[in-house]
Design goal:
The chain is of the alpha/beta class. It has ten helices and 15 strands. It folds into two domains: 283 residues, Putative cyclase (Glucose Oxidase, domain 1); 30 residues, no CATH class. The protein has a nine-stranded mixed β-sheet with strand order 1-15-13-7-9-11-12-4-14, sandwiched between helices.
Length: 330
Amino acid sequence: MSEPSEDPHGLDRSDPEGEIARRAAAYRNWGRWGEDDRLGTLNFIDERKRVAAAKLVRTGQVVSLAQSFDMNGPQKGWRRRTNPVHTMLDTGTDAERGTQGFPHGIGGADDVIAMPLQCSTQWDGLGHIFDHGNAWNGRRAGDVVTSDGDLVTGIEHAASAVVARGVLLDVGRFLQPDTGELADGYAITTADLVGAADAQGVTVERGDIVLVRTGQLARARRDGWGDYAGGAAPGLSLTTAGWIHRTEVAAIATDTWGFEVRPNEFDVPAFQPLHQVSIPNIGLTIGEMWDLEELASACAESGVYEFLLSAPPLPVTGAVGSPVNPVAIL
């Protein structure tokens, strides 16, 4: 059987089922790390990879790649996804008025936050997406994720895994040097990813965490959120699944809500086909809504697009995703 096309023009836009199935079969990693695997492509990160990544630190500059977690975020309530709600439990006013009941004048503040785990900068875990009722590694979806959470591949298993060499592919600046921003609906191809890497003088290697900047977040901040959370967006084409599998990257994150191009690349109903191939079949951990603006500027100034990246999820037991404050150390 021939390899699926890596040219978006080769997609049968009337057949998402077939196009997804061909890529799922061609790039499936089930059993690659054993029947009990919980990490998928994060297994590509090993100790030697982390030691090599640590040697990339040159200036000690730390850049946070997280958006804010507050009520001014982009969420509009789709499928119950809301922005974080931050509430104070104890305040300075309480302390001033002596209503907290503490001795010798000590006072304090406490707070609580309520939010969906994927409402801002976050990781999609391996239990987040299924393919025809199958979860990562060929397990039955209902045996993996129940009302008690992800019983097998919960995000807590990745808590110490996501530290590696980071590589920024600034596709926005590569393809649109005047604006640095790709148009909504633009499908990033394998040729675009390879071209950006070549232009930046960086190679993508096994175990890397690849960050793909489209520029959509910069546009949303300038023009307003609009439909940033769920609407049209630039993103990876379904046809990049072969590149993802072939390069053996550990994870990929983008500055968009959905990682892949939206609307998706079909003329009939389709929803997140690259997720359907990448998460349950390839075993890829996916990051979304990362803030890559300061990092992109720093990389452009230095001409260096590789760095130490630390992005562990919160070890929320049984969660299928997690908020994250990723940091690039330059």
